[in-house]
């Protein structure tokens, strides 16, 4: 395979998830010229074509990420959709925890989720009204903001991994506190009645509510393509 074809393949994989916009085409050509210049320099230094290509790729990775991961999205629709999703997630969590009010600590948790839902709802209303007033008679809805997609994607993965780690740690803590002595002294674990079972299940299910955070981050990443602004208009 020729160097030209290898460069083309590398650039296609780099921009695989991007829209075919004028900005992205210009970025691709700039990266291509820089990559070709580096390869020529390494070849002049006596490297083989394979060594020159791999070395150039390694030195270009940082620039490629910086130049290719920005996306322009419609500011108001993007943030409105993200506020809506956050409000829906918090309301669903509040509704799910309503039955837990009969248990110790369940009422406090449900009230906390209700407060969070009210705060998010109030913020969403204020944001919508302020943009409606500022955007009346203007093209405010067409204003854009830049989003670093690759960074957001990394944070999405980190949020899910961090959430899973936190849940496992909290589950381990609960298991140690509730069943540690039974396991240590090789005694059977006993559950006295359905209420105690419900309390145990509630204690283990409580950490799962922290899923709201990775869900919001995941949503922020997923809707970028929906509101991305194309130059091909």
UniProtKB/TrEMBL annotation:
Name of the featured protein: DUF1129 domain-containing protein
Parts of the chain that traverse the membrane: 76-96, 108-127, 160-177, 197-217
Keywords: Membrane, Transmembrane, Transmembrane helix
Matching InterPro entries: Perm_prefix_1
Keyword Cytoplasm in record: no
Domain of life: Bacteria
Organism: Paenibacillus cucumis
UniProt key word Transmembrane helix: yes
């Amino acid at each position: 395979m020729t160097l030209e074809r290898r460069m083309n393949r590398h650039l296609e994989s780099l921009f695989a998830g991007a829209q075919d916009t004028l900005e992205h085409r210009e970025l691709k050509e700039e990266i291509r010229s820089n990559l070709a210049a580096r390869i020529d320099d390494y070849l002049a230094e006596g490297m083989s074509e394979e060594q020159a290509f791999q070395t150039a790729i390694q030195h270009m990775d940082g620039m490629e990420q910086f130049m290719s991961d920005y996306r322009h999205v419609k500011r108001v629709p993007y943030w409105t959709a993200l506020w809506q999703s956050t409000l829906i997630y918090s309301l669903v969590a509040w509704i799910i925890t309503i039955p837990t009010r009969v248990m110790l600590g369940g009422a406090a948790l449900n009230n906390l989720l209700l407060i969070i839902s009210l705060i998010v709802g109030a913020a969403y209303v204020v944001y919508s009204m302020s943009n409606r007033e500022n955007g009346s008679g203007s093209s405010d809805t067409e204003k854009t903001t830049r989003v670093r997609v690759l960074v957001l994607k990394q944070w999405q993965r980190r949020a899910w991994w961090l959430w899973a780690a936190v849940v496992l740690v909290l589950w381990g803590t609960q298991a140690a506190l509730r069943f540690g002595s039974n396991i240590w002294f090789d005694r059977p674990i006993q559950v006295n009645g359905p209420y105690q079972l419900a309390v145990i299940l509630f204690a283990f299910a409580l950490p799962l509510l922290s899923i709201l955070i990775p869900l919001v981050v995941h949503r922020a990443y997923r809707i970028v393509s929906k509101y991305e602004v194309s130059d091909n208009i």
